[in-house]
Amino acid sequence: MTPVKVFGSVAFTNVARVLVCLEEVGADYEIVDIDFHVKEHKSPEHLARNPFGQVPAFQDGDLMLFQSRAISRYVLSKYRTDEVNLLREGSPEESALVDVWLDVEALQYDPAMSSVFFQHRVVPALGGMPDEGIIGESVEKLRKVLDVYEARLTKHRYLAGDFLSLADLSHFPETYYFMEMPYAAVFDSYPRVREWLEDLFARPAIKKVVSLMAKDFSG
Ligand SMILES: N[C@@H](CCC(=O)N[C@@H](CS)C(=O)NCC(=O)O)C(=O)O
């Protein structure tokens, strides 16, 4: 069977999200690097894959997809087995809870984290000064999300329930970068969240993608 293709560098969080799903299900895949330095992501070839000129894009035969969470859902559905059912397909209640917490990750957790990352890492790399006001507001937003997570994870082992799901995995790429920033200490007040993250980061699939991300960064 031809391996599926993921277009985009592993160091990008949205690409890493898709790769961790492919690793969890043990699918064969090929990474096709898209060179941002020469604006390959805005080339006609790549715009045909992702009309927003972003990564990731994903190809499985004639099927072309974009949007990392939609791709992740496709991968987990296509390669689902009785043992690896990370969308909880077959149970409307559990799969609805996976959707709820995946939305929380996409709409609350990720924006707060990526705003800190943008100010702390991207703005200086572009020659600017980080806006400490924006960082402070974003860390405050993150704290509010973590309050909710701490309460939820005190009742359940994982976010959607007592089972691992895409909702958990989807948190790893942004968190991986956040933990290397000085603001990581915000997590110290959330012992259950820390335990949950330790559990996630010990997974072979996440360890594998983290090693690819580190390699991608070191060039
Ligand atoms: N919601 C999209 C976001 C994709 C995205 O923002 N990708 C970034 C890299 S992580 C990108 O390609 N940025 C380049 C640009 O927007 O021009 C997803 O989940 O795939």
Automatic annotation (TrEMBL):
<comment type="function">
    <text>Conjugation of reduced glutathione to a wide number of exogenous and endogenous hydrophobic electrophiles.</text>
</comment>
<dbReference type="GO" id="GO:0004364">
    <property type="term" value="F:glutathione transferase activity"/>
</dbReference>
<dbReference type="GO" id="GO:0005737">
    <property type="term" value="C:cytoplasm"/>
</dbReference>
<dbReference type="InterPro" id="IPR004045">
    <property type="entry name" value="Glutathione_S-Trfase_N"/>
</dbReference>
<dbReference type="GO" id="GO:0006749">
    <property type="term" value="P:glutathione metabolic process"/>
</dbReference>
<dbReference type="Pfam" id="PF02798">
    <property type="entry name" value="GST_N"/>
</dbReference>
<dbReference type="Pfam" id="PF00043">
    <property type="entry name" value="GST_C"/>
</dbReference>
<dbReference type="InterPro" id="IPR036282">
    <property type="entry name" value="Glutathione-S-Trfase_C_sf"/>
</dbReference>
<dbReference type="GO" id="GO:0043295">
    <property type="term" value="F:glutathione binding"/>
</dbReference>
<dbReference type="InterPro" id="IPR010987">
    <property type="entry name" value="Glutathione-S-Trfase_C-like"/>
</dbReference>
<feature type="domain" description="GST N-terminal">
    <location>
        <begin position="2"/>
        <end position="83"/>
    </location>
</feature>
<dbReference type="InterPro" id="IPR034347">
    <property type="entry name" value="GST_Phi_C"/>
</dbReference>
<comment type="similarity">
    <text>Belongs to the GST superfamily. Phi family.</text>
</comment>
<protein>
    <recommendedName>
        <fullName>glutathione transferase</fullName>
        <ecNumber>2.5.1.18</ecNumber>
    </recommendedName>
</protein>
<dbReference type="InterPro" id="IPR036249">
    <property type="entry name" value="Thioredoxin-like_sf"/>
</dbReference>
<dbReference type="InterPro" id="IPR040079">
    <property type="entry name" value="Glutathione_S-Trfase"/>
</dbReference>
<dbReference type="InterPro" id="IPR004046">
    <property type="entry name" value="GST_C"/>
</dbReference>
<keyword id="KW-0808">Transferase</keyword>
<feature type="domain" description="GST C-terminal">
    <location>
        <begin position="91"/>
        <end position="217"/>
    </location>
</feature>
<dbReference type="GO" id="GO:0009635">
    <property type="term" value="P:response to herbicide"/>
</dbReference>
